[in-house]
Amino acid sequence: METYALDLVLAFAVSLFSGYLGLGGGILMAPALLYLPQAVGLEPLTVREVTGLTITQTLAACLSGAWPHAR
Description:
By secondary structure, the protein is an all-alpha fold. The protein contains three helices and no strands.
């Protein structure tokens, strides 16, 4: 349960920084998911899990941007 809460907090923080700085979310999210869970005392995520999470985030961002653009 703590890992899900950390994922939500990281997603919010990364989205703020990526929007503020103009960086892609994956550039910030992948290292954050790799290193921060271990830094706060949670079990680390594998590279496969981090890849799946960042791909899902990218797909959701692309679809949410394409939908208003298509209208």
